[in-house]
Design goal:
It contains three helices and no strands. The chain is an all-alpha fold. It has one domain.
């Protein structure tokens, strides 16, 4: 399920992963990551850059990946601080 037919699909998967990790480091929530990924996938679908099989695989993999908190590293390197901004004080 996770192997793609084209190297381009791998590049798009990595691009989404990198962007979501960057957003996580700025305390974006999982729902905000989902909105970002949905927009990326929607535009990719509309421009028909990938074959339908790779597009479907990519969408399914991103869905699972975003829902798994172990996919991300907290801004300070601690998974326990994901998505929650530290209070100053």
């Amino acid at each position: 399920m996770t192997s793609f037919d084209s190297p381009e699909a791998i590049k798009h998967f990595q691009s989404i992963c990198d962007a979501c990790q960057e957003l996580t480091s700025r305390y974006y929530s999982p729902s905000e990551l989902r909105v970002y990924a949905d927009g990326y996938l929607h535009s990719l679908r509309n421009c028909r850059r990938l074959g339908s099989r790779d597009q479907e695989k990519l969408e399914a993999l991103i869905d699972r990946w975003i829902m798994d908190p172990s996919s991300f590293i907290g801004p300070d390197g601690d998974i326990n601080n994901l998505f929650f901004q530290k209070e100053n004080g």
